[in-house]
Design brief:
By secondary structure, this protein is mainly α. The protein has two domains: about 160 residues, no CATH class; about 30 residues, no CATH class. The chain has nine helices and no strands. The protein starts with a helix and ends in a 7-residue tail after the last helix.
Amino acid sequence: MDKKKRIAEAKSKARKFFQDKRANCAESVFKAIHELVGSDLPVQVSALFTPLGGGVGIRGENCGAMLAGVMALGLVHGRFDPAQGTLETHRKHLWDTYSLYNQLPQRFVEKYGSLQCWVLTKPHIYGTKKCRDFCEELIAETAGMVMELLIEAEEKGLRFPFHRNLLSQAAEVTGLSAEELIRLKEKGEPFPVS
């Protein structure tokens, strides 16, 4: 199946789960990707995403659809057994996958302007049909972004350029670049901060 069809299918499945009013934003995104990637995890794992609806228990924190999308990326590229392999291999895989996971919040903010459910839903008034329609579209788009990232990872490998990230704190203090800091982390060495 070509790239556009895979992305369209992810969007359609997530939208359908939400439209059926049996899955919240987070469950809808995760269930769509779970189904499309053919995971060995049972579908009941979607219960882990129930609390994320409405920005974590309708608190309005990070968007549940986006959080579930990051976790769906982990469904394919996460560490199923961190104790396997060498420590060096473990660390390299971790930083490669962090660079993948870093992409979704970046793309989400570029498209919607915020990660916060509170901010995203405020113009539409949570609980209204207008808000539900907005969230339905956001859910579909998020599932599409996840599938697009999975395809990019298949085609290009896992090393993506980092966007906003915690390494910038250490870079300011140490004067090292993000790549130099990542190499230190991969070796298990602490950052040189006095």
